[in-house]
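Progress narrative, Year 2. Work on Isocitrate lyase from Alteromonas sediminis advanced from sequence curation to structure prediction during this period.
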Amino acid sequence: MSQYTDALKHLTTLTASQGAPWSGINADYAARMVVQNRFRTGLDIAKYTAGIMRKDMADYDADSSSYTQSLGCWHGFIGQQKMLSVKKHQGTTDKSYLYLSGWMVAALRSEFGPLPDQSMHEKTSVASLIEELYTFLRQADARELGDLFKQLDAAKASGQDTGEIEAKINNYETHVVPIIADIDAGFGNEEATYLLAKKMIEAGACCIQIENQVSDAKQCGHQDGKVTVPHEDFLSKINAVRYAFLELGVDDGVIVARTDSLGAGLTQKIPVSQSKGDLASQYNAFLDTSPVTDIASLNEGDLVIKQNGELVKPVRLPNGLFKFKDNTGFDRVVLDCVTSLQHGADLLWIETEKPHVGQIAAMVNAIREKVPNAKLVYNNSPSFNWTLNFRQQIFDAWKEEGKDVSAYDRDALMSVDYDNSELAAAADEKVRTFQKDASREAGIFHHLITLPTYHTAALSTDNLAKGYFGEEGMLAYVRGVQRQEIRQGLACVKHQAMAGSDLGDTHKEYFSGDQALKASGDDNTMNQFD
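Result:
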């Protein structure tokens, strides 16, 4: 039986049992409200969406074309509109998630104002945004189901068959989808990580992404100055997140372990090795060191460690940080990823400096020698110059094949002069197929763009402001925004309804009957968009 049918049956019995005191309660109306609010708490959402992610991970293991995708959203309304669009154009929300970007929380949601991605924003703002996103997604469900119930009432009133409408209600697909939520480096020690993870899970997060940078020295993954922590420190935070999931009953919660080692050349501390070849020893083996042949050559405060039977002095910078050997990023990434998967992580995130399928595949293949089902969440970052990167990749491939590339200047391939060239067309095709190619060849289960809606908000606002304050005047809005909403069938063109006025009118009818003062009468200007 459907949720609606079950709710109606239960509430009909319940209201009847209460007798006269509940005579003003309509069991059907109450059942509709139950269906329109399928998820009572954030934990209900976390448990539901964790199951979706686990199924999707199994689907990907069986078929790499079954990858998943998301866009980063910095406000509940943006997340809602994204999922409305996905469902409208794709016909389903299947394999579509939301991404919560720490970068965008810092840049757009902090009470301090715009901040860089350095874990300086309020940690509570992360959990608050998760709750906000799900509030808007649940409202999208309520609004659409409300429209279906109106259709059901109209069909009943006219004596039409209601089977098709009832089937749509019974089989309604929710807009509530998994959120991959960025906890940065944990905002402190492992206890702080646990406490914040609990808040995020209680808000609805089924998947938490954590990175192996030093918490108080965290940098954006696409900036310099990144400092990693020893494996033991990172694993303690992975454990903290898992304990948070288990405490709250989200037994299949998902942990994404991110490594920044490819672009991080520094560590804050040297871990203590307990036995030869242990994790600390492997981490320390990457340190840039110089041999100590004479104790007398050491300066006051110098630090010396024993490696492979010899004394060596790690290179230490004036700020006290220690330097890794050059060209060890690849091997450190592989060790990070294998270690994380062997100690509780479910998915990997490798932060790279460019979107190159071959580079990513090389690391994933090395990881899969130890963990065969290893798979990635990958950042299709706006920090990459996608046009230039892929044009240069095509240029290099053609040159290696012996194709004549004399018509192109590799360093100037971003130029508009090349936009209509054969090379540009080939590069754009590689960009178009990047997700399919990388999921097939490089183990990428989930493709996300961290901060796309930051850029779309800036671009659309610039275009509107340019015209509205220029010669176009009001036409800039009418032609560039409203007319496009109407032509493309955006429900948001009826902004009053999108904000909940129709839902409110319906509830007023439930609560007050004929006395209800409603907003959707003849004088509501939204009727111009019917």
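Residues 11 and 442 are 52 Å apart (CA to CA). The mean pLDDT is 92.
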